[in-house]
Amino acid sequence: MLGCLVAGRLVQTDPLRVAGDKFVFNLADYESVNHVVVFLLGTEPFPAGMGGAVYFSFPDPAAGGQVWQLLGFITNEKPSAIFKISGLKAGEAGGAHPFGTMGAASPAISMAQVGVSVELLDQLAQQTPVSAATVSTVDPFMQFTQKMLDSLYNFACSFSVTQAQMTPSPSETFIPSSCILRWYENFQRRLAQNPTFWKS
Questions:
Q1: Is the distance from CB of 39 to CB of 3 less than 8 angstroms?
Q2: Among positive and negative, which fits the CA dihedral 154, 159, 164, 165?
Q3: Residue 36: beta bridge partners?
Q4: C-alpha angle 49/52/57, rounded to 5°?
Q5: What are phi and psi of 155, to 5 degrees?
Q6: Tens place of pLDDT for every residue, the chain, 200 residues?
Q7: Radius of gyration for the alpha carbons in the chain, expressed in angstroms and rounded
Q8: DSSP assignment, residue 11?
Q9: Which of 19, 133, 165, 191 could form a disulfide with 71 if both were Cys (CB 3.0 to 4.6 A apart)?
């Protein structure tokens, strides 16, 4: 009925059924996982009026159990979803979840788990997933550009010296780092006002 996919790994299509309406996928080496895709296999749809709430849990050494966090949901109309989990490992504490102590009682306590709980669509619509699980919808080129500019600024600043430390060098042209920062802040401001201005 359900599948789970992590980049670079075999697809999991055999979740552990921990209750009649609850399924769990184990994720070994979860520290290296950035995103997870949960999907319906197409062999068996959800019952009418039902969908699957998708949760992620990881070991909490301090409490000796699992921290569960709601990622989102899938339905017959939206049979797959991708979730970002890399920011959740040390993030917000988990809230209420339908898995009780099943994760803590499981031998997979040293692993992360992806849980799917079959629930009414009305209930799914009222739940609030953790914000960090939402995959960015920003244009990939825009993301690359922002990261590149951050890298350029950080790289340039690594060579910074105070005026007292400067030595005469006729072959070098010095640019104040503040001008790069001002340009970057202006770029960010223009981007906030018009996210597509850089395409023109």
A1: yes
A2: positive
A3: 83
A4: 160
A5: -65, -45
A6: 899 999 888 999 999 998 889 999 999 888 888 889 999 998 899 999 999 999 998 877 666 677 888 899 999 999 999 988 877 755 455 566 777 655 444 444 568 899 999 999 999 888 888 766 665 555 666 667 777 777 887 777 777 777 788 888 888 887 777 887 788 788 777 777 776 666 65
A7: 23
A8: P
A9: 133
Q: How many whole angstroms separate alpha carbon 118 and alpha carbon 115? A: 10
Which amino acid would we find at residue 3? G
What is the rounded CA–CA span in Å between residue 28 and residue 5? 13
Q: How far is CA 185 from CA 75, 99, 136, 175, in A?
A: 42, 45, 21, 17
- 33, amino acid identity: V
CB atoms inside a 10 Å sphere around CB 142: 15
Residues 198/191, Cβ–Cβ less than 8 Å: yes
Phi, psi of 131 (to 5 degrees): -65, -30
Q: Which residue has the tokens 């340039």?
A: 156
What are the phi and psi torsion angles at 4 (to 5°)?
-140, 135
Cα separation, 74 vs 126, in Å, equals 14
pTM above 0.85, yes or no: no
Q: Which residues pair with 22 in a beta bridge?
A: 19, 117
34 and 85 in contact (C-beta within 8 Å)? yes
The size of the chain, in residues, is 200
| Cβ atoms 84, 135 nearer than 8 A | yes
